[in-house]
Design a protein that fits this description.
Number of strands: 8
Strand order of the largest sheet: 1-6-5
Number of helices: 8
Order of helices and strands: EEHHEEEEHHHHHEEH
Largest sheet: 3 strands, mixed
Oligomer: single chain
């Protein structure tokens, strides 16, 4: 069984590696550099997610986060460390739940996910138990997947339909006949 730890960082934070080791990220400077290079290569795009800097005055390396929010896993032997980067307001709020509620409301609005306030509160309470950002995204994934499955094929074909198009994915549909028949008598040929 692997040991699982959570290390929480915030946007635009500059944290010494010695402090990260005390939080549970037992890695050398070289391993941290490889980790940041891998994360930046996968998710950085035009701007890096992490940078490792050296402070000669203190003779210490620092891990600096930039404007990205999310999480990555660091695997080392029998140890898994979830490195999560939370939005900057989380850093100054004594109650994570209030910041997370605000974050999820913005996330819901921006991505038009259609989450109900009760669902958002349930996600916040789940985070309160786990304190791991990956659990939130797993919960959201399962929730959105279950909604898509419950909608079924009707959601898939719910877009605009041109009358000149006589086929949808190989099945022939007679649009003129469908428009005149009641829904319980409609057939597809």
């Amino acid at each position: 069984m692997r040991d699982f730890r959570v290390v929480t960082l915030y946007e635009f934070e500059n944290r010494p590696l010695s402090e990260l080791k005390s939080l549970g990220l037992q890695a050398t400077e070289r391993e941290i550099m490889r980790f940041t290079e891998a994360v930046n290569a996968l998710y950085g795009g035009d701007s890096p997610v992490f940078t490792v800097t050296y402070d000669p005055r203190r003779d210490e390396y620092h891990l600096k986060t930039h404007g990205s929010v999310g999480f990555a896993y660091y695997f080392s032997g029998d140890e898994v460390v979830l490195v999560q980067v939370l939005p900057k307001p989380f850093r100054y709020d004594r109650e994570d739940g209030r910041s997370l509620l605000f974050f999820l409301q913005l996330f819901n609005m921006y991505y038009q996910m259609g989450l109900e306030p009760s669902e958002i509160r349930e996600i916040v309470s789940e985070y309160g138990r786990q304190k791991a950002l990956d659990e939130i995204f797993r919960y959201l994934y399962v929730l959105m997947l279950s909604r898509a499955l419950s909608r079924g094929l009707y959601y898939e074909y719910g877009g605009d339909l041109e009358e000149s198009s006589q086929t949808i994915r190989g099945g022939k549909i007679l649009v003129n006949e469908l428009a005149r028949r009641p829904p319980w008598k409609q057939i597809c040929r």
